[in-house]
Amino acid sequence: MSRAFVRESDQDTTELPERPISTHPNFVTPRGLAAIESQVRALEAERQAARAAEDGALRARVERDLRYWSARRASARVIEQTATDRARFGARVGLRQRSGAIQVFRLVGEDEADPAHGSVSYISPLARALLGKSVGEVAAVAGGEAEVLAVR
């Protein structure tokens, strides 16, 4: 067959590297598990579309991502939030920085973390500094100290 009739994407046999899977326990909140399941469903639909379009490159990327999210779903350990006076997984923790700035962070699983929106992974340095702290205690964060104002 002439090369003129072969799409470049059909010839792309380069394998994509696998997405690395954390060695830490895959703790998730109920919302985090729902997000993982939603991602798997979206990727399954995207894989069908890539098959229908006979887009090999897209299909390879989608299948790689589907392997990652399927593994994360299989290893997920849902941690329900319970009422406590100490910072723990799933809690919202309010802090007052030395500058007076107040910040609130939610301690979540690795795949849920979005620091720009106030959620940090439980394995992050900030979360590790906060875990186990209660209102009034001081935590070493970002090269300084912050007082825990609230734990919800």
Question: How would you characterize the overall build of this protein?
Answer:
The structure is a single chain. With 152 residues, the chain is α/β, with parallel strands linked by helices. The protein folds into two domains: 8-78, no CATH class; 92-151, Transcription elongation factor, GreA/GreB, C-terminal domain (Chitinase A, domain 3). The chain contains four helices and seven strands, in the order αβααββββαββ. The protein has helices at 8-11, 30-52, 56-75, 125-130, and strands at 27-28, 77-78, 92-97, 102-108, 119-121, 138-141, 144-151. The radius of gyration is 21 Å and the shape is elongated. The mean pLDDT is 92.
Largest sheet: 5 strands, mixed
Number of strands: 7
* 3D shape: elongated
Strand content: 15-25%
Number of domains: 2
Question: Termini, distance in Å?
Answer: 65 Å
Order of helices and strands: HEHHEEEEHEE
| SS-derived structural category | alpha/beta
Radius of gyration: 21 Å
Please state the average pLDDT score: 92
Share of helical residues? 25-40%
Low-confidence stretches: none
Number of helices: 4
Order of strands, widest sheet: 5-4-3-7-6
